[in-house]
Each structure stands twice: as C-alpha cells, then as structure tokens.
Amino acid sequence: MKTLIPLMVIIFLVSHSVNSQNTKLIDSLKNELKQRKEDDSLKVKILTRLHEKLMFSKPEEAKKYAERELQISKKIDYTKGIALGYMHIADYYVNRTENDSALHYYALAKDYFIKAKSNRGIIFINHTLSSIESTRGNLDKAIQITNENIELINNNEVEGKSKTKFLGAQYNNLANIYIEKGNHKIAMKTALKALKCFEDINHETRKADVLKQIGDIESGQKNHEASINYFKQAIDIYERFDEKFYLAYAYNSIGISYQNIEDYTNASKYYNLAIKYSKDIKDNLSLTNTLHNLADIAFIEKNYNKAKQLFTEAKSVAEKANIKLGLVNAYDGLSKVDYESNHLASALNINQKAIEISKSIGAIPHLKDLYKYRSKLFQASNKNKDALFYLKSYQNINDSLFNIQKTQQIEELKTIYETEKKEAKIVLQKQEIKALNQEVEISHLKKGLYAGGMLSFVVLSGLLYFVFKQRIKKNKIEQEKQEAIYKQEIEFKKKELASQTLHLVQKNTFIQELKDNLEKIKSSPELFKVEFRRLVLLLKKESAEDKDWEVFKSYFTQVHNNFDKKLKEIYSEINEKEIRLASFLRMNLTTKEIASMLNVLPESVLKSKYRLKKKLNLDKTTDLNVFLNNL
User: Fold this and answer.
1) Of 250, 318, 241, residue with least CA distance to 285
2) Cα distance between the two ends of the chain
3) What's the CA angle centered on 568, arms 492 and 498, to 5 degrees?
C-alpha cells in the first residue's frame, strides 16, 4: 500500500503531475499577475493556478500565492475564493505533516465551500480529512468522512467520467482504511468497486493502483497465488507507463508472495528489481524493506554471510532515513544470524536494541516475536529463569493481539451485515419507486381511456390490481430475504456464544495445569527442560483457544439484545462482576460450571447470587434464573 496519502487530494485539483510542470506557463501566469492591477475574481484564479503549479516544487512561494488569493477574495467578498485560499494554505501544512494547522484551515475552507454551495470543494476537503484521520489512527472517523463523500458524489450534480473517477478514488481510499483495520473482506469488496470505476473510464494507472491493492489484500489473506496474478496485472501497466516509484513497491510485494510459496528464485528476481528502482528514485523506505526481504531468503538458504551483508545494508539505509521499523527488522535479522553463528552474547545484545525501538514506536506485533526469540536465546544460554520470563511476556502480547483480532472479526461481520442490509433496502426502495411510477403512468392512461367506455375501465382496473399485487409480492420476497439473513446472523452468533462459553468453562482447567507444571519446576529444577517444552506446547494450545470475558460479552450482547443495559435500568450501580454472573445465569449454567469459570468455590457463587437478587429488589418467591431469562 502506497504511503503518499497526504498528496492524494491533488488528483482532484490538477490534471498533470508535478514532473510535467511547464516553466513557460508559470512565467506566463506570473507576467499576467503583474499586469493585472484590479483585484477581482480573475486575479484570484491566476493566484490559484500559480499555487497549484508550485505547491510541490516551491512550497514556500506557493504558500505566499495562497495567502494573496485569500486576502483578495476576502476584500472582494468572493466566497469560493476564500474557501480555496484556506484550502491551499491547509495543503501547505498537510504536506509538511503539520496536521493540527492543516485541520484548522481545512475546517475554515469547508465552511466557506458550504456557503458557496460547492459540493466539489467539500469532496476535496473530505478526501484529505479522511487521510489525516487515517494516519492518526482514527480509522472509524476516516470511514465516516469517506462515506459522507460517497453520498455527496451520488446525490449531487457530478456526472459522467468525473463522477466515476471521484467514486473510484473514494472506494480506493476506503479499501485502504479497511486494510488498516484488518477488515480484509470489506476491503476486498470496496477495492473491487474502485476497480470497476476505473475500468469503466479506462483510467489505466489508477486501475493499476487498485490491482496492486487487491494483491496486497489477497496476500494478507494468505491467497498468495491469487495475489501474484493481481500484482502481475499492476506491474504490466506500471511498466507500460514507466511508473518507477510504484514499480518499486509492486516488485517488492510480488517478491513477498513468491517467498511465501517458497519460490525463492522468482522472489529474489523481483526483490532485485525492486532494489534497482528504489535506488533510481531514491526511496529509502522501499529500499530498506526490500533489502531486508532479500536478506531473509539468504538466511533461509543458510547463506549467513550474504544475509549479514544485506541486513547490515538495510540497517544503514534505515538509520540514515530514520526509518524505525526498518531498523527493528534489520536488528532482528542480524540477531538471528549471530545466533546461527553461535555468537549468543551478540545476538542477545542486538535483540535488545530491536526490543527498545519496538517499544518506543508501539510496534506490538514485532515486540511479540522479539520476546519469543529472546526466550529462545536465553534458553540456549541456559538462563532458564529469563527464558521463562520472556516466554510469558510473549504469551501475554499474543493473547492480547488474539483478542483484538477476534473483536475485529466480530466488527467486520456486523459491518458486512449492516452494509448488505442497507444495500438491499436501497434496491427495495428503487423497486417501489419504479412500481409507483408505473402506477402513475397507468393512472394517466386510465384517465385518457375513461371516455372509451366501461370495458376499458375494467381492463385498466385489472391491470392496476395486477401491478399492485406484484409489488406487494416483490416487497414480501425482499422482506423474507432480509429476515432469513437476520436469522442466519443470530444462529451464527448463538453458535459462537456457545463455543465461547465452553472455552471459558475449560479455562480454569488450563490454569490449574499450568500451575501444576510451574510447581514441578520449582520443586525439581532438574526437570526444567522437559517441563519447559511442555509449558510451551500448553501455551501454544491455549493461544489458539483462549477467549476472554470481553469477547464472550460481545457475542452475548448481540444474541441477548443488550442484556446488560436492561440490568442497569433496574439497578444503575450494578458492577461488571454482577453483570457477568447474571449473564452466566441467563445461559442456564450450573453453580458448579460458573464456579469453574470464575475460579471460585461454589459457595461463593451462591452468596453472589443471593446478593444480586437482593440488589435487584426481588422478593423471596421470585426465582432469580426465571427473572433473568424473562428480562
């Protein structure tokens, strides 16, 4: 996925790239500006063009033109010119990644575009606002803004190729955000919409961008053969248009897919091409990533000298360009080379450097793998206590990431369901409008034929009745389809909830087994190696199966219709533990099963049930389980 998000808004503003700026045109515009004495809208337009032509090559000069554009527009009360002036100043700040200042000016620009009733201007602003929110990690906000843009484009005067191009850009941006969220299914659906838009208007380079994006999605889903096919289509277009920048990234991506299917010959071929183009365009991010990938292949093939040379080169590039994640990857690779060369002290030292950088930038997935490898290094050094500590640290992060992934999957399921429901509703509304229009046409026909006699009236009435019945039938079919989808979703969630409950019941058994193994190690240090391996296997098994209370609660709430909110309406001060107990009782679990899940004695569960019943103000004759089931 390309990283030039702040620059994407220029797609809507100019039809030529920065590399094709015409010096004569700029000189001509400057000359026209000097000659024009009167401050009017034409002068504002000249300043606008100068800003657009210089915003990348000479940003400081371009900013001055934007400020003059704003000043004159305010003087002559030119609303659209004021909006453009604020937007161009915001562009200056966003391209310097000074997002706070950019957001301030974009907000002012958007207000004036609304006053000027310029939907195009609002679309431009929203596109960049979405990109800023995405880079800040506010992905839901970015999705909301992009969807607002799609609605604006569909509901306003933008037509023809411009409309299709605008929609394609929004769908492409939306797919990028969903990839960041880890919602690959929705990302794929959205990317395919973008692809269709660019195919419809035969926009080759934008089509290549989406093909590359779809390849990345397929690769993320481990569909590597499919990803290679999409990458090749993108590369073919990029090569025809000599797009060296995008070729560097596409070659690297296809190399990763070939590496994942263990075709190291093709992987190396494409990595070397990516390195060549990265050096040609002087893109250090692409260069350090590809050097690291090529070093990985040398490491897999046990060519440790070559691997060390490539990892060192990747480290040098990352240090020079201050690419933190590139440094983490390079240090990790060098640590592994030292381990294979039996230089354990050096391997531990380099591994620690990678851990420190990962912590500083919040690279949690990398930190997880680094902890796991550090445990291996300490075990090889016979430092068993340290090995166990880092193994536990790895497991804690792994569990946390697993829970995040499950939450994302639930969210993705809900989003897909809501999207399909909304699309089905739109289709149904269109069908109803079509049917009503037919009724109106028939009604007009009826009035025209009324004078023709009763026979025509009877025939027309029959036709009206038939159309009305058909519309009711269609509506009923659509409603039944929606109900079927809803029932399938509920059944799926019920199964997931049952599965979640079973895992929670089994969790205490796992914890007890883990405690027993740790006690054995404590009492018999000589058994460490045997029990250590058993602990690793046990933790791996639990990593794949353990799901905590928050995931259970998410499923439970969806199946049982906001059960916790209903409890809070009865007793506002009910706490999380009491809600958890009530949820388990609603599932008709026995006291013994609840005790096992909560890791307490059955007597404690009985006491908690008594206290809960009292807080809910239930009398002695009211059964708590029956009350909760009827809630």
Assistant:
1) 318
2) 48
3) 20
Asked if residues 66 and 38 have their Cβ atoms less than 8 Å apart, the reply is no
Of 317, 315, 311, 316, the C-alpha closest to 340 is 311
- Looking at the chain, the whole-number percentage of residues with pLDDT higher than 70 is 70
Q: Are 338 and 376 in contact (CB under 8 A)?
A: no
- Please say whether the beta carbons of 628 and 618 come within 8 A: no
SS3 (DSSP) at 247: helix
pTM of the model: 0.55
CA pair distance 414, 557, nearest whole angstrom: 13
Residue with tokens 């292949």: 297
Count of CA atoms in the C-beta half-sphere (13 A) of 52: 20
CA pair distance 174, 168, nearest whole angstrom: 10
Q: Give the per-residue pLDDT at 400.
A: 72
* Amino acid in position 401: L
Instruction: Name the region of 138 (left: φ>0; alpha: ψ -120 to 50; beta: rest).
Output: beta
For 156-183, the pLDDT digits (tens) are: 755 678 888 889 989 988 998 888 777 8
> In the structure, what pLDDT confidence band is assigned to residue 435 with cuts at 50, 70 and 90?
low
Distance CA 7, CA 551 (A): 39
d(C-alpha 290, C-alpha 274), whole Å: 7
Question: Which strand (E) or helix (H) includes residue 432?
Answer: helix 384-449
**Sequence-distant (≥ 6) Cβ neighbours of residue 63 within 8 angstroms:** 51, 88, 89, 92
248-257: string of b/e by CB count within 10 Å (b at 16+)?
bbbbbbbbbb
Asked if residue 202 lies in contact with residue 221, where contact means CB atoms within 8 angstroms, the answer is: no
Distance CA 347, CA 561 (A): 53
Question: What does the alpha-carbon distance between residue 307 and residue 313 come to, in Å, rounded to a whole number?
Answer: 10
Q: Contact at 8 Å (CB) between 119 and 157? A: yes
Alpha carbon separation from 29 to 15, 35, 77, 82, 490 (Å, rounded): 17, 10, 23, 20, 64
Q: Where are the alpha helices (DSSP H) in 136-283?
A: 139-155, 160-181, 184-200, 204-220, 224-240, 244-260, 264-281
Burial class from Cβ neighbours inside 10 Å (0-12, 13-18, 19+) for residue 263 reads middle
Q: Cβ contacts of residue 476 below 8 Å, gap of 6+?
A: none
The Cα–Cα gap between 513 and 535 comes to 9
CA 198, 201, 203: angle at the middle one, nearest 5? 55
Lowest mean pLDDT among 7-11, 283-287, 475-479, 525-529: 7-11
Give the residue from 101, 177, 127 showing the smallest Cα distance to 10.
127
What is the residue whose two structure tokens read 């018999």? 524
Query: In whole angstroms, what is the distance from residue 432 CA to residue 203 CA?
Result: 35
- Opening angle at CA 400, ends 394 and 404, nearest 5: 140
The amino acid at residue 419 is: T
**Coil, helix or strand at residue 546:** coil
Question: Tell me, what DSSP letter sits at residue 527?
Answer: G
* Beta carbons within 10 angstroms of residue 391's beta carbon: 21
Query: Distance of CA 448 to CAs 420, 465, 466, Å?
Result: 42, 18, 20
The predicted model gives 454-465 an average pLDDT of 57
